[in-house]
Design brief:
2 domains, about 160 residues, mainly alpha
Length: about 160
């Protein structure tokens, strides 16, 4: 078991660091830098390590939420214009939008009384088979980095 000295005064054991942070820094300077990065004043108490872990987790959570928000805001909805043609606001949820489109187009098709309207709705159904095709069905977004990977950048 080794000790890590911060600011030349405060000492933390590698066992305590590991139990609170889940990893041990490369050297005392890395631990000192982590305290500085999160504006935590070391006192030599294990509460310092709790505060550091909490601050790191809070920062990590903010970054993950920003990544998720950015992914959600940047998504392109290939069927949005198709839905708009029949008065549906596309949500980006493939299954929900596909069901709403099919319900609306079926209702509109039933109420069509002339050949031109029937042809128009048939054209929209054909277009929907392309817009809602499997190639446009979104996959699950990539998961953000793990907390351990995030934490590791402060413990180098």
């Amino acid at each position: 078991m080794s000790n890590f000295t911060v600011n030349g005064v405060y000492s933390y054991t590698s066992a305590n660091i590991y139990s609170y942070l889940g990893r041990v820094p490369v050297n005392s300077r890395a631990l000192e830098r982590a305290f500085d990065d999160f504006d935590i004043t070391p006192t030599g108490s294990t509460d310092d390590l709790k505060k550091l872990n909490s601050a790191m987790y809070e920062e990590y959570s903010k970054q993950v939420q920003e990544q998720i928000d950015n992914q959600n805001n940047q998504k392109v909805i290939p069927w949005a214009s198709l839905c708009a043609q029949i008065g549906i606001q596309a949500t980006g949820d493939y299954d929900k939008d596909y069901a709403a489109f099919n319900n609306a187009i079926n209702l509109l098709s039933q109420s069509a009384i002339d050949g031109q309207a029937m042809t128009y709705f048939a054209g929209l159904k054909t277009e929907a088979s392309h817009a809602f095709g499997l190639s446009n069905k979104p996959s699950q977004p990539d998961a953000p980095i793990s907390y351990q990977a995030y934490q590791a950048q402060f413990m180098r």
